């Protein structure tokens, strides 16, 4: 049994005095004082004139554009390279660009990865790579060594097979974890809906696409796009332009330029009417909701600042959506919107997580707020509040020298006016309520949106039909493949029942007679988390005694004990010693039962056979188990072998494999448990049966 962990976030609010007894002197009027009339709202002050920090720029013969921002407060220099190319479709090799970028950091033709890591650590530097550039930083005295390493990484990557294999293993592990992460699922599918599966912005990495990527693909991508003539280098820190010019020429002057393909994808269109899509998570109690569509909003365009003000009012912080869905309706912990500019295609998106039972109500409230900002003028006090909020954020960003460099690069990349950022606050202050309404009418489309709900389809689908305009709801799996829910789970053969499936499973693992011979069982398993080996020890004794211990060496992290009557959860490190009650105790009674599958009827566990569903290419019977506490789990049994291969529950997704026989009974020796973004791969080390465990082992005293 796995404990459900509830995280409670407490927020403290500072309360300011409501009344101030401020008085002002009138100066030459003889010392007369007047009380401030607080019924009159003070007029906003004029937008401040800001002085953007200075930068200098130059260009190498190979086309590399360099921007230098001097900051001599700390003897440190950072180098940030951005490659300005349009992303290309990767198709059945989605993820290739990411792998190519990561591989730059895995070694060069001169240094292995270990040697490179050691050289970077030796000078206390940072050096990271991506598909769109490279970042490096170190103390000024190490400039030469840092740029030697940076240039080597940039121009001489080794692209070794063994390093790609490591990255692919990590990526596949991450993908498996994402399968049970509603936020990751909604991000994948929502961008596919908004941009289209063939658009570079709509593609997502899959296990199959990862397997298709080779070293040659990564090398070809690098050779095509890592070119200086599309590069923008920001140099920030204790350095002058003259020093920067000398260093760039010395270390990157021989970086060869070449023509770079600038692919222009087809611009995605708005849906003609609202489109509803669902990713089914049968045991989810919450729905991850995304509402969005593509927008034509370019960086630095005439509408950009006005649109940012408008979106901030709608949901760019703790404003309208947040106040409506959280503060007023208590549907969620937070609701937000984003309106992103992009040189190809921008995107509007609303995101929140709500209870299944209020999914439709939450959508209605989102659309209400979208229509309200289109149809009504924003009150002046609300508009000023948001403009002050954005002014403050902008002013704070100016404290970072890197911001000045970013402004310079953005001005060059997007062809902005030279004084675009210098006039930012002035232009922000000029945004009126009429401007907000106008851009809302242009970019807020409550009738042309993709509505994606990641949750329990059986519960939320009936609530979402009202938003389809008569069209069918679309269903997608984790990898973005559309399917028909009416055919995904095929009917079971005539005469096949849940009890038959369970009996096949019992026979597959050894049979009822062999199971009844087991009087006690000890299982030792382990996993590795953050480099530490964690041990899981399980003990069972007939009829219903149970103990689980989790720890490392002599250190015990958690212990669960049930003596047949009383259950306790003990966490020595957390100081917890909890007696389980209510539904937790009822679940424990089922979990502790030796060979519980033989006793479901007596335990009050109801079984429902939903049909046959394909799991990883294998046809499986899909069973719903409903426990006395009301909780449910979905279990999948291989239709041919009878073995259980997968289970979905509130705790996440568990998979079972590598069945081995111990004393005539087959046990899974490989168990993978996914809980949100985390995956725990349990490797069973040993299983012993009938070792005459003592009752004292299960004592709760």
Automatic annotation (TrEMBL):
InterPro entries: Metalloenz_LuxS/M16 (IPR011249), MPP/UQCRC_Complex (IPR050361), Pept_M16_N (IPR011765), Peptidase_M16_C (IPR007863). It comes from Lentimicrobium saccharophilum. The keyword Signal applies. One of its GO terms (molecular function) is metal ion binding. Residues 92-189 form the Peptidase M16 N-terminal domain. Keywords: Signal. SUPFAM superfamilies: LuxS/MPP-like metallohydrolase (SSF63411). Residues 1-22 form the signal peptide. The keyword Signal applies. Gene3D superfamilies: Lipoprotein localisation LolA/LolB/LppX, Metalloenzyme, LuxS/M16 peptidase-like. This is Predicted Zn-dependent peptidase. Residues 212-388 form the Peptidase M16 C-terminal domain.
